[in-house]
Amino acid sequence: PYDVLVVGGGPAGASAAIYAARKGIRTGIVAERFGGQVLDTMSIENFISVKSTEGPKLVASLEEHVKDYGIDVLNLQRVRHVEKKDMFEVELDNGAILKSRTVIASTGASWRKLGVPGEEEFANKGVAYCAHCDGPLFEGKDVAVVGGGNSGVEAAIDLAGIVNHVTVLEFSDTLKADEVLQNSLAKLPNVTVVKNAQTTEITGSDNVNGIKYLDRETNEEKQIDLQGVFVQIGLVPNTGWLDNTVEKNRIGEVVVDKHGATTVSGLFAAGDCTDSVYNQIIISMGSGATAALGAFDYLIRNPIE
Ligand code: FAD
């Protein structure tokens, strides 16, 4: 059995595993896709101390660092269930069961997709999901933000300082963002808000060149020429495998304390699958370190009899 089994191989999981292994305890990582969201990222300019890098390059460094500690990496394996008996039993999709004294859940999150034609085809070719990350690539261009909740309006405010023009497309007849954010948005000269807009297609040839939407009031199809689309309709935490074993918040994120501990003793969590307020690589790595140190504290206080 492992002392620490990390479920998820993104920045949170890699960091947790390295911190755990540095304590000289038996550590494993099981990941559906080692690298996580970072593999899908084109350029990273806010990973402090590295001025600029690309997602796959950062993942290769993570893997090299993890391997340096002799951590067992079970890649391309999905966990479907965990149960606490005398130890944790972590069940994989292929039926195998891994045993561990502690588990660190770091299964991240997935952007909620629009599910319209063009979204997948132009991913990383004008379709983006993270304004902090990819905003600067659209300097001087015209973009749309789909979604008028807090994240959409924040993204629009952020982008308005960089791009030429931002159109916010909101499905319902009101923006859902906090009033202070809406007030800031209303003051910006280069932002247009379109309500009752149901996005129907993202168009392009090599890269995005426009967006089509249905005006739900008039039932008319409309089109805007632009070079970028930021989809901001929420993140879905990958926490289904935890069932109802741990406390989660309203949107399914695992609730953790300052030690990265969940409501099940010995089960820790880190990164985007938790109720952490901001989702970034550097933040996930920090919380992965916290969860590993929390798990180590737990192990030395609960020795095997
Ligand atoms: P993830 O990276 O989501 O990793 C989750 C891991 O868990 C993966 O290995 C996944 O395969 C695995 N997994 C999921 N479910 C299971 C399961 N059931 N069983 C086994 N394994 C499972 N942040 C920045 O700081 N800077 C940027 O420039 C930046 N750009 C971004 C661009 C894009 C397009 C995206 C999508 C995100 C970007 N982010 C950026 C955000 C950043 O990538 C995330 O905050 C970070 O990756 C979260 O790390 P994580 O380890 O918590 O989760």
TrEMBL record:
The keyword Oxidoreductase applies. Disulfide bonds join C130-C133. The keyword NADP applies. NAD(+) binds at residues 142-156. One of its GO terms (molecular function) is flavin adenine dinucleotide binding. Its cofactor is FAD. Keywords: Disulfide bond, FAD, Flavoprotein, NAD, NADP, Oxidoreductase, Redox-active center, Ubiquinone. Belongs to the class-II pyridine nucleotide-disulfide oxidoreductase family. This is NADH dehydrogenase. It comes from Oceanobacillus picturae. The chain holds residues 207 to 511 of 523 of the full protein.
